[in-house]
Design brief:
Length: about 475
């Protein structure tokens, strides 16, 4: 049975809601003011809260602020008899799930309450999965480059400085962002992530800044953008190099002034947001198509993550780390790598970097038949076996899924190289959604920039 806390200074409203929710099989607790509500939050397991705005001594917004400061993670539905659009927006900015006007409509109240509980439960389950999957895993490695990165995070995290993270796909840029946020005074505020490459260009502004109802075709309701969602916390702009020039101009203004206007709106909105951006492209070059004024504004503090091929001494540590975490996550006994398999893995140039290594460990943990992973248990796309088979040699691949993976990998890698590793141009030429190509890049650990001169290039092989 879910417990709902009703907070309202009017006894009649508390009594009415108590009767209604009890009839609907909720356990109901009531409080007549904000301080009483906070005491109950500390003493009871509360699943949801109905919170009045106008109360003596401490209003509903102050209660929301105290809840955030004290770490109370409870979905809150704010109610008010003096509701307007600004009150609703302010409630959501301060962490409320939704806003309802008095007098309350019974059906809408019950639906909103059920939705808030479902949303909170789903979010908690997702967070648990992310923890078990190593989403918050540390940066593993003992090479000089990793030690410098950890030192950078320790010195930079407590500040509000803007950070630009560069590096190839799969090198762990997301881990650096989370470490920066976790080590900052903003750790109890939102960390909001935006994949700029996955958002259609025409919707980037709406996604970042929000839009007013009716501002364009399809805008049937008010939308709060990522900048407002991240107010007080950290906004992570991933793959920022793929953002349109028009959106770059508006982001520049928002970053410089910490204020913006929603799409279709006229009111200037002020936010307190720390910006962390990441890219796998060289934004400093004139041919990048990226605004140099925005680049210099983002490049206050910069950190480059080295590719795995430049820190091969960490391969053994990463294999052990992922074997331990993934075996626990999948409920399978860990396996060890035979010397010949380790030799292959140490020689591999890892075009997909740490992400590719993690995927390989998960694969062998599931598919390798014994307790020891031999060279024959490794996927075909490793150094010494990376060249695409010629002609009928494709028929020598015993497993159909491996055949599909090998052919698709070789084809997409060749096309990426043909179009200068420009993901947008490649996707357009293939008639593929750019977001879908990014998924393939992540899945197969494809390169999105040229490899070292001495590295084996699978894209050179003929199909």
């Amino acid at each position: 049975m879910n417990t709902v806390l009703v907070v309202d200074d009017e006894a009649a409203i508390r009594s009415t809601l108590d009767q209604l929710l009890t009839y609907e099989r909720y356990r109901v607790l009531t409080a007549g003011d904000g301080l009483a509500a906070l005491r109950l939050l500390g003493a009871e397991k509360i699943d949801a809260m109905l919170l009045d705005v106008k109360m003596p001594d401490m209003d509903g917004f102050e209660v929301l602020e105290r809840m955030a400061a004290e770490g109370h993670d409870v979905p809150v539905i704010v109610v008010s008899g003096h509701g307007n659009l600004e009150t609703a927006v302010e409630a959501v900015r301060k962490g409320a799930y939704d806003f309802l006007e008095k007098p309350l409509d019974r059906s809408r109240l019950l639906l909103t309450l059920r939705n808030s509980l479902d949303h909170h439960r789903t979010r908690a389950e997702k967070e648990g999965l992310r923890v078990r999957a190593g989403f918050y895993a540390p940066l593993v490695g003992e090479c000089a480059g990793l030690r410098e990165i950890r030192d950078f995070i320790a010195r930079v995290a407590p500040t509000d400085a803007t950070v630009l993270i560069t590096g190839e796909n799969g090198t762990g840029k997301e881990l650096v962002v989370r470490a920066l946020h976790a080590g900052s005074p903003r750790r109890n505020k939102p960390l909001v992530e935006v994949n700029c490459a996955a958002i259609p260009r025409e919707l980037v502004e709406s996604e970042l800044f929000g839009h007013e109802k009716g501002s364009f075709t399809g805008a049937d309701r008010l939308r709060i953008g990522k900048f407002e969602q991240a107010d007080g916390g950290t906004l992570f702009l991933d793959e920022i190099g793929d953002m349109s020039e028009e959106a770059q101009a508006k982001v520049l203004k928002a970053v410089e002034e910490s204020r913006f206007e929603r799409v279709g709106g006229r009111e200037v909105r002020q936010v307190d947001v720390r910006i962390v951006a990441a890219t796998n492209r060289d934004l400093a070059s004139q041919g990048s198509g990226f605004r140099q004024d925005l680049f210099f504004r983002l490049n206050v503090l910069a950190i480059h993550l080295p590719p795995l091929r430049e820190r091969t001494g960490d391969v053994d540590l990463l294999l052990a780390h992922f074997m331990a975490t993934l075996s626990a996550q999948l409920g399978r006994p860990p396996k060890r790598f035979a010397p010949e398999a380790l030799a292959l893995l140490r020689r591999h140039t890892w075009p997909g970097n740490v992400r590719e290594l993690r995927n390989l460990v998960e694969r062998v943990l599931i598919l390798a038949p014994g307790d020891v992973v031999g060279a024959g248990d490794l996927p075909p796309l490793l150094d010494g076996r990376t060249a695409a088979p010629e002609g009928a040699a494709w028929l020598g691949i015993p497993d159909f899924q491996d055949f599909k993976a090998a052919t698709e990998t070789a084809y997409l890698q060749a096309k990426l190289k043909e179009f200068g590793y420009n993901v947008s141009r490649t996707a357009e030429a293939l008639g593929m959604q750019r977001s879908n190509l990014y998924k393939k890049i992540a899945k197969y650990g494809l390169r999105t920039q040229p490899s070292d001169p001495g590295a084996i290039d699978t894209a050179d092989a003929d199909l």
